[in-house]
Amino acid sequence: MTASVGRVARKRAERQRLMERVAAEVFAERGYERASLEEIAARLDMRGASLYHYYPSKEDLFLAAVQNATAEVVARLREVASSDGPAVDRLRRLFVSQALVELRDYPSFAPLFLMHLPDPVLDARVRELSREHAAVFREVAAEVGGGSRIGTYLALGSLAYLRRWYDPSGSLSAEELAEHVADQLLHLL
Amino acid sequence: MTASVGRVARKRAERQRLMERVAAEVFAERGYERASLEEIAARLDMRGASLYHYYPSKEDLFLAAVQNATAEVVARLREVASSDGPAVDRLRRLFVSQALVELRDYPSFAPLFLMHLPDPVLDARVRELSREHAAVFREVAAEVGGGSRIGTYLALGSLAYLRRWYDPSGSLSAEELAEHVADQLLHLL
Amino acid sequence: MTASVGRVARKRAERQRLMERVAAEVFAERGYERASLEEIAARLDMRGASLYHYYPSKEDLFLAAVQNATAEVVARLREVASSDGPAVDRLRRLFVSQALVELRDYPSFAPLFLMHLPDPVLDARVRELSREHAAVFREVAAEVGGGSRIGTYLALGSLAYLRRWYDPSGSLSAEELAEHVADQLLHLL
Amino acid sequence: MTASVGRVARKRAERQRLMERVAAEVFAERGYERASLEEIAARLDMRGASLYHYYPSKEDLFLAAVQNATAEVVARLREVASSDGPAVDRLRRLFVSQALVELRDYPSFAPLFLMHLPDPVLDARVRELSREHAAVFREVAAEVGGGSRIGTYLALGSLAYLRRWYDPSGSLSAEELAEHVADQLLHLL
DNA sequence: AATGAATGAGTGTTCATTCAT
DNA sequence: AATGAATGAACACTCATTCAT
Q1: Is the distance from CB of B158 to CB of B181 less than 8 angstroms?
Q2: What is the secondary structure of D84-98 as a DSSP string?
Q3: What are the tens digits of pLDDT across the range B135-184?
Q4: How far is the CA of B117 from the C1' of F4 (A)?
Q5: Residues of A in contact with B156 (CB under 8 A)
Q6: Which residues bind DNA (chains A, B, C, D) (predicted)?
Q7: Which residue ranges make up each domain of chain C?
Q8: Per-residue flag: B15 CB under 7 A of strand E
Q9: Among B4, B43, C17, D160, which residue has the fewest nearby CB atoms (within 10 Å)?
Q10: Do C34 and D162 touch (CB under 8 A)?
């Protein structure tokens, strides 16, 4: 009995994680306001109303999506941060990782950088997650020595901005750009 | 007759510029979608419908606001760019100016960085204005020598991101931060 | 003094008749609701607000336009009706005249047939004018003998409907069709 | 499962047909522009927004209503047209039927004769339906021999105009008038 | 006489949300 | 669990109308 309940619960959790991933995509593509629950649901072969069986409101779904994405990215970054090698190398690889998140995996992560949320409380939560994310960079930058809080934020700004001007059809691949950018950002710190 | 017509037209133009400045504020604060014409009008002691005497649609008002703000900032930057002195100094002062635009005059300029516009055409126009703005930096950076296109965009990203984390109630004034940031960004190029 | 006042008044009256003619066109083209005062004014090289110097409301302008058009058409028809010749011939020529009004001069006259007016009182007035117009046909039809009230309305219905299906680019000219229709309608009575 | 789905779908279809009938009434009474979705909804004990669960726009609801009404009337007429008896008799009964549609069932059918639609495409669709309707008359008129295309349109014009002047409180019942009119229209052809 | 400015009322449309099934 | 149905709130937009100039 307990086992089957556990299986059901696990299945539900899996389903929710998928929902959050899809939701993150739509939020990232359209912005919070223009992302409609009906569209998110459609990409999941559901109807908008059904989402309310999993999340009490659009804000909650959004928050779950952001938390999900942040946790995933932060985990990936922490792995890099705690790997072997000199701090400078690890910082460089953090930049590369983050750049690739922006350039390739952007849809599931961008909500972190969404602005103009309707609710200040929601905004505060997102900023908190944003700080968790930035902390990884700050820690490794601190090890390097020259790394200041300001420097870290400057680098993160550069990285967040990548998708505004990067042209995937250009001569540079996402990977090449990521490497190049990482090198340059090291000069910042 | 002609003179009085000119005066009326000038008054109208002035009023429009005020409208655009206020509109830019609201767009920057709320984002395109959540910025309601009624709110923009309220800050001008008008009603939403009255705005239609000046702009045929919300999109047009938005675009006018962005063009207005961009023109103003670009003019300010061009003045700096074409002043006397070594290119490095001028580039540094460009960074300071842009940082102050972000940190102090942000409300009237931020729409340039707005994403998630409802219409691709609108988006394209904004990107075009964005390029005009970036061009100033690129030109002076080119004079410096080390300045690449990518480096310029990285710097602009850092600057655009300032307002996400700068705390005006902290120990650094906007001016101090601007100077500090400008110094650091020079290392990027 | 009186003379100059009279001249001014006459000029004003002329201007109003032009306004009414243009208004009738727009009302006929767009229907009462979709005909905007601004469009009517634009065709007169004026602004919408200026119309209020001549008519206290849209309804009044509409009514004046319809009265104008009706008076003109009725006058034209009365001339035909009171001309020499056998009643049948005159009735036939009445049909031709009315058909041509519909097919050629339609824009200035059609408001008579406009339905869906916003106000019952307005509608009643239009119907009254409509009856004045029908009376001409009825009187001559009565002379013919076989002409009943119903027959007259059937004929007027046929004529009013012409513009729904007549194709000016077809093989029949408006004049030819008018003649043909007049012949056929005589069989009705 | 399939059966219950079918039942749900059928119920929805029924509801839609009711909506279209009511919509046709309001459109006929008020004209396209003045017919507000809120009023149509009110007559169905709904709110305007709810209509959007069934039709994507006012135009679509209008078109569905017209198609619905036309199909119904054309079906009724086709039955008459394909019944036994000499063509003249059948044509006469077509006139009677159409007259009764105009005089009694008018609200659900009149949209066919609505003019001044806001969209040319919409207008074209309505005209197409109008032709389908006229075709029935033209076919039977052709069998009679004297029946021309023009004659048919003249008759239809007479019939469409009936409701402009018929007074239900007068001495003639709708049925009596229909019979009388049918007789007279035969003389047209 | 003409109009620029402003507005209130009305309307189509979207969408998050609720609820009965 | 899923959804069809319904809705209230919000919003862009239109337009007849008023009024000061």
Answers
A1: yes
A2: SS-HHHHHHHHHHHH
A3: 999 999 999 886 688 999 999 999 999 988 999 999 999 999 999 999 99
A4: 32
A5: 161
A6: 36-55
A7: 2-188
A8: yes
A9: B4
A10: no
